[in-house]
Structures are given as structure tokens and as C-alpha cells.
Amino acid sequence: MGTEEAEASVYRVQDEVSLLRASLAGETAAWGEIVTRYKDAVFGLCLGFLRSPADAEDITHDAFIRAYDNLRRYNLEKRFSTWLFTIAANLCRNRLRYRRNHPVVEPEFESSGGCDPAAAIAREERQNRVRDGLTRLPYGYRAPLVLRYYNDLSYREISEVLAIPEGTVKTRIHRAKAMLKDLIGPVGVIDHETG
Amino acid sequence: MRQDELERTLRDALCREVEATAARLTGLEDRVIADLGDRAPRLGVYGWLRRLLAPSPGARWAQAAILGATAAVFLIVGFWIGAERAPSDPADLRAASRFTAASAPVNDERVLFVLPALNAKSVSVVGSFSDWEAVPLADEDGDGIWTARLPLPPGRYEYAFVIDGRWWGQDPLADGYVKSFGEYSSVRYVGGGGDGA
């Protein structure tokens, strides 16, 4: 086992607070373990917000860099993931502003294929429609939906991440779901398949 | 579509979307660590303050450096203000220096006010000792050095000269200066007191 690998395995068993303390001391390998633990969650958030895998990858990377640089601002008594998601959400918002002035080609998502195509056809169809609907939702409605159903955040945590009142979060999620239903509903395929 | 079904489908759709593109995250840790290099998290303003206040030998040097720099800034600003407001004519300055010793309060507590103003037609002093009424200075021998000797009890006095109707708030021989309503005034302590004005 090499030195770096041994170092990484040491961090692998450490709790989050220890990793953050080590990161504060400038141990970037400890921060690497934090990246491992949170990269999927941050990437999912960015992908949900931005609807572009390439942009989501960029922003995920930048979010971890920015979070490390500003780690001393993080209050260890608060939930780390919420703080990290706030940074990622802000970066996503900036990227969307940039995109408004620099339009890009619509993103294409690869089809996952699935391990059991015959059984998954209906589900795949539903998910594709939901993804399309999500892409067409305005950002202000899409973001709380992603944080709620992908990142599993509470209403209070979503309000912290997006810097909006908790009541607004509830309203937006409720409306977002109604809008999503409208966006995917007119064809009627889903109701027939599942009903 | 029912509400719970929509939520489940939404959750599944987002997860599948991430799974389908998660290959992009391979090696992200290494890229982040490489980009960070050897740097530690930024200290920030509070971090710097904490470091400065921490009782370590390095911090003491930093404290000394900051104090030194602050003192230097104050000195520079003070000299600059003095250069802006004090008489700029070398002859005036030479004349003023002759009176430095005489400007201290005399034994009989008659305080000497002196100002070199070679081409002035009238010079007076106004201050807290006279309810800011003008007290004229005299230049009896016409050498451009204007003087007045005023009997003052011990205390702190704010004052300014008025040269041909123009406010001159910074007496080079004052003990200090204060700024109020955008104008400087000079401060002088008589007899070591501090409660006169």
C-alpha cells in the first residue's frame, strides 16, 4: 500500500468533523475524502438545477474548491451538507445568469438503458417525461424541487440554501409539482400506464 | 398521476439522471486536491484578527508590524495635513521657530500666541477662552510676526487664528488639533489642566 493510499484509508474511517478539522489544518487529503462523500449529492443538485451534465461537473468541482477556501466561515455546529449545498446553489445561480447571456445548445441526457428493459419501459418513459418537465420548469421552482426530492432536505434547510422564506419554499414546491403535472400530463400516457 | 407517484418518479428520475452521468465524477477528488495544491483554507478577516490576537511569537511580530504600520500612516497623514495647512513660506517657518520656546505658558499664566504672517493686514485669535470672540494680535515692529499674550487660567483651550478674515485652525505650536464642522481648531493645555474649555 502506497503512502497516499494509506493516508486515504486513514481518512476513510474518520467522522465528518475530524475530516473538516484536518482540512482546516490544510490537509487536502482529508478534503479529498469529503469530496468523495458529497460529490454525488452536489453533482445531483447541480445537474437538477442546471440540466446540463457538463455544467454540473464544472460547478461541482468549483463548489468543492470554493468550500475549501472558505472553510473557516463554516460553523462546525451546523450541518455541513447544507452549507456546501448553499455554495453549490449560488454557483449554479451564477452559471445560469451567465448562460442567459451566452446561450448553449440544449443538453442531451444519455439513456441509461437499464438492466431489465422490458420491465422498465413504462418507468423509463415516466422518468423521461419528468426529466423533460423538470428542464422546462423555471429555475425558481426547479431548485427547491431538486433539493427536496434529490437531496432530501427539509423545508427549513431549503430555505437556508436558497435564501428564501420557508413559507415560500413550501409554496414553490407545491406549485412546482402542479406545473410538472401539467407539463407531463397532457399526453395522458402516464396515467394510463400507471392507473 | 397521483401526488406520491409524482414524487417517487421525480426522485427516481433525478437519481437515474445522476447515475447515467456519474462517470464524469471519476477522479474528481484528485482533480480538486491537485487544484488546491498546498494551500490551506483562507483565513478571512476574523481569522487574521484571531491570528493577530493569538499569543504566539509570530503573532507578536505581526502585531508589532501592524502597530508600526499604523503609526507610520498616522505620522504621514499628520505631516501631510500640517504641510497643507501650515505656513509654507520658509521665512515664515524660520520666524515661527524662533518663538517655539516663548509659546509655552509663562509663569504669570499669560499665554503667548504667535503666528508668522508676513503680508497679513490683520491677525486675531478666537477661542473657547474668549467665547470665540476675536482677540487681535499685534505686529508692532512690522516683521510679520504677530503676537498676543493672554492671561489664561489652567485648562484646555480650543482656538484658531483668523488672518485677514480667513480661518487658520492649525497653529504649528499647538498641543493638538480637533476637527469640527469641517474645520480644524488648535488645542492648547495651560498649566497642565484639562477641564478649562
For this entry, what is the oligomeric state of its chains?
heterodimer
- For this structure, what is the CATH homologous superfamily of the largest domain in chain A? RNA polymerase sigma factor, region 2, helix turn helix motif
CATH architecture of the largest domain in chain A: Orthogonal Bundle
Element-level helix/strand string of chain A: HHHHHHHHHH
Biggest sheet details of chain B? 6 strands, antiparallel
Classified by CATH, the class of the largest domain in chain A is Mainly Alpha
User: Gap between N and C termini of chain A, in Å?
Assistant: 55 Å
CATH class of the largest domain in chain B: Mainly Beta
3D shape of chain A: globular
Strand content of chain B: 15-25%
The parts of chain B where pLDDT drops under 50 for at least 5 residues are: 93-106
Number of structurally distinct domains of chain B: 2
Could you say what the CATH architecture of the largest domain in chain B is? Sandwich
Helix run count of chain B: 5
Q: What is the third-level CATH name, the topology of the largest domain in chain B? A: Immunoglobulin-like
What's the average pLDDT of chain B? Answer: 77
Search tags:
heterodimer, A: 195 residues, mainly alpha, Rna Polymerase Sigma Factor, Chain: A, Arc Repressor Mutant, subunit A, 2 domains, 10 helices, B: alpha+beta, Immunoglobulin-like, two-stranded antiparallel sheet, elongated
